[in-house]
Write a structure and sequence with these properties.
single chain, about 270 residues, alpha/beta, Rossmann fold, 2 domains, seven-stranded mixed beta sheet, about 40% helix
């Protein structure tokens, strides 16, 4: 049977690389970004080319890899996308906002790779994991949780993170993905503060932001419930979100869930 699926893929986003790994197609990646290597180290084998990400993409270096598929996610470098499309290379562009969007993206990537069943299994595994955590928190109190994906300016985490917070037994406060201010967060006086800054890994200076934002009197600060979750576990719309879910559950209900990798608490 003829195989018409792509064999030379350039991945411009870590989420796409992680999805390809989950559906067993990582060997088709010929070029990816340094951020892909950070979250999926195995992609660095076999001399793969490192290229810029979707926002800083350079069409020349992408096309030099001779891809038959380029996968990207917002925000895009529009000029590079135009050049890729003009070259005739297939381009998949994603802009997920919710968990349902992420499930569709996984199905789309698996479908174009000719492994639809694998994609469906990955989605079902994610949904099962989320429902398992949800079932363990149904009768628990629901702390009010402020999550942010960026600190200057303050930007609340995305809608899919809000959905994970709810599944983990918390109440997400604020508007997902929207810019906010330190006084606005203080006015809501959250029970838990979660910082997961894009590109920061687990290096968010929790004590500093509490001090600099005049949050020392908030109940979250007083109760030492200010945490950092590694950004790739919450900001990468891929199956790795399940690790982020477990970190959220452990932060929201530390007496119910074990401390997982990628979760750190503000020290005294």
């Amino acid at each position: 049977m003829a195989d018409f699926s792509p064999h030379r893929i350039v991945s411009l986003q870590p989420s796409a690389t992680l999805i390809l790994a989950e559906v067993g197609m990582l060997d088709r990646v010929v070029a990816c970004t340094k951020y892909c290597v950070d979250v999926c180290p195995e992609v660095a084998t076999d001399g793969k080319t490192i290229v810029a990400d979707s926002w800083t993409a350079k069409s020349a270096e992408i096309l030099a890899a001779k891809p038959d598929l380029v996968i990207a996610s917002v925000p895009y470098q529009e000029s590079a996308v135009i050049e890729i499309l003009r070259s005739g290379v297939t381009f998949l562009g994603f802009a997920p906002k919710t968990l349902a969007d992420i499930y569709r993206d996984i199905a789309a990537i698996a479908g174009i790779m000719g492994v639809s069943e694998r994609g469906l299994r990955v989605v079902e595994q994610m949904r099962t994991a989320i429902e398992e955590v949800r079932s363990r928190t149904l009768t628990e109190p629901r702390p009010r949780v402020y999550c942010e994906e960026w600190g200057k300016p303050l930007i609340a985490s995305q809608k899919w993170v809000a959905e994970l917070v709810e599944a983990a037994g918390g109440e997400f406060i604020g508007t997902p993905g929207a810019q906010t201010t330190a006084p606005a967060v203080a006015a809501q006086d959250p029970d838990l503060i979660v910082a997961s800054w894009c590109g920061a890994g687990d290096r968010v200076p929790l004590q500093k932001i509490v001090r600099d934002r005049a949050w020392v009197e908030l109940r979250a600060a007083k109760n030492r419930r200010v945490v950092c979750i590694r950004d790739e576990f919450l900001n990468t719309p891929a199956p790795s979100l399940i690790t982020g879910l477990h970190a959220l559950a452990a932060a929201i209900h530390p007496d119910r869930f074990p401390q997982p990798p990628g979760l750190s608490w503000m020290s005294e």
